[in-house]
Specification:
Elements lengths: L10 H8 L12 H24 L16 H24 L5 H43 L6 H11 L6 H34 L1 H5 L9 H14 L12 H4 L3 H22 L4 H15 L3 H10 L3 E2 L9 E2 L3 H15 L13 H41 L30
């Protein structure tokens, strides 16, 4: 009789030849250990993907100044800087009778024009090196060993106290998948923002050619560095990694806290559109899931706000994207020496409606408090007036004062006596 295993090929034939006492294919041990290896591999792949999305090695911004995307902006910025320098030289030549001030202005314009042109060509390379440094530092801070957040999760998947509990594994996988979705949102907003600020670098640096006004350059650099270093906001959960080590469920709680921090990264780190994107994500989560925990997480990451400017009390007020860009455009125009009238801000329709509803509810609460206080003061005199009526009949009546009538004051000298 022929061997029935001969009809099989590959790993199935080897498994058949091992006999019914085997739990899995050769080289994998038991079926449980093989499944656990696949689970750990899947968790490691999710963690690696989260790292790559939050702090990628390579971004969307151009890495060289001669790239197809960056070259038109570089050409425009260089010609704009040279045009401004020529205008300054012409003005200084026409007003050369003023002497040293004009000579000083022309020297400053010459030096700052050279700095601007050199800086335009070096921005892509500098951003690329900084992006690699941020990526390496983020990897070292969050997944280098067992004392970091993602390193602790990988270790707990294998050696944790509840690593064999299917419910704990399901919870940590759910938290990793949700964190992956938030990391993708962070990746999209960060990369688009960095790309936009790198492309506008030549236009901002060209403003230096006028004489060294660095206000626009400082604002631009502050926005760009905020986008670059935004992933380090997750360091807020790092001190709690040691407390969570050894338990997959507590690791999942830390991942939920990291999700809220990612929302804050978008809200505060992405200029102009950050609050709108974060609020849209919050609205999407609240409309798609009835879970109170999910609602609490997104509300912790995206607080209620109005769109104009900060206020000391109540929901904060932020600028709309158009108003925020208008303010920074005014700074850039001022660096070029152009005056841009500042428009007065007003609340958007949605924010105005929300503010009216909030003010109405606060007014109703205040009216209710005043009504309660009035009722309290109305009942208090009645209780005090009822106190003499409750006095017993044999109680002694108050006696008049032993002192006699008040003495009549003596008139002053030279005045008639009063009757």
């Amino acid at each position: 009789m022929s061997d029935p295993c001969d009809a099989l090929k590959g790993p199935g034939k080897a498994y058949c030849e091992r006999g019914p006492g085997s739990d899995g294919p050769p080289g994998t041990g038991t079926g449980t250990s093989g499944a656990s290896d696949h689970v750990r591999a899947l968790a490691d792949s999710l963690i690696k993907k989260i790292n790559q999305l939050i702090a990628p090695d390579h971004g969307w911004a151009p890495a060289k100044s001669n790239s197809t995307l960056y070259e038109p902006f570089l050409w425009l910025g260089q010609h704009l800087a040279v045009a401004i320098f020529v205008c300054v030289v012409v003005v200084c030549a026409l007003t050369a009778w003023q002497g040293a001030p004009r000579l000083k202005q022309m020297g400053a314009s010459t030096g700052w024009t050279l700095v601007a042109v050199a800086g335009m060509a070096s921005v892509p390379g500098a951003v690329m090196l900084l992006n690699k440094a941020v990526s390496g530092a983020f990897t070292a801070a969050f997944s280098s060993n067992e004392s970091t957040l993602f390193g602790a999760i990988s270790d707990d998947m294998q050696h944790g106290a509840d690593s064999g509990n299917p419910l704990a594994v399901l919870i940590i996988f759910s938290a990793l998948v949700v964190a992956l979705a938030f990391a993708a949102l962070v990746f999209m907003t960060r990369q688009l923002g960095i790309l936009a600020f790198v492309c506008m670098a030549p236009l901002v640096l060209a403003s230096l050619a006028r004489g060294g006004d660095t206000s626009a350059v400082k604002t631009w650099a502050m926005r760009l560095l905020g986008l670059m270093f935004a992933p380090f906001a997750l360091l807020l959960v790092s001190p709690f990694v040691k407390l969570a080590q050894g338990s997959l469920v507590v690791d999942a709680v830390l991942l939920v806290a990291a999700d809220a921090v990612m929302f804050r990264m978008i809200f505060h780190g992405v200029p102009y559109f950050g609050p709108k994107v974060a609020r849209a994500a919050r609205s999407y989560v609240e409309s798609r899931t009835p879970s109170p925990l999910a609602h609490a997480v997104v509300r912790a990451g995206v607080p209620d706000f109005y769109e104009k400017e900060n206020t000391p009390r109540g929901p904060r007020t932020v600028d709309t994207p158009g108003r925020a860009m208008s303010k920074d455009r005014g700074v850039l125009f001022a660096a070029y020496g152009l005056s841009k009238p500042e428009r007065s801000g007003r609340l958007t329709t949605t924010s105005a409606v929300a503010k009216e509803w909030r003010d109405a509810s606060e007014s109703a609460t205040r009216r209710q408090q005043l009504r309660e206080v009035r009722e309290q003061y109305r009942t208090t005199p009645r209780s005090q007036a009822a106190a003499p009526a409750a006095r017993p009949a044999n109680s002694p009546t108050p006696q008049p004062s032993p002192q006699g009538p008040a003495a009549t004051p003596r008139p002053a000298t030279g005045q008639p006596n009063t009757p």
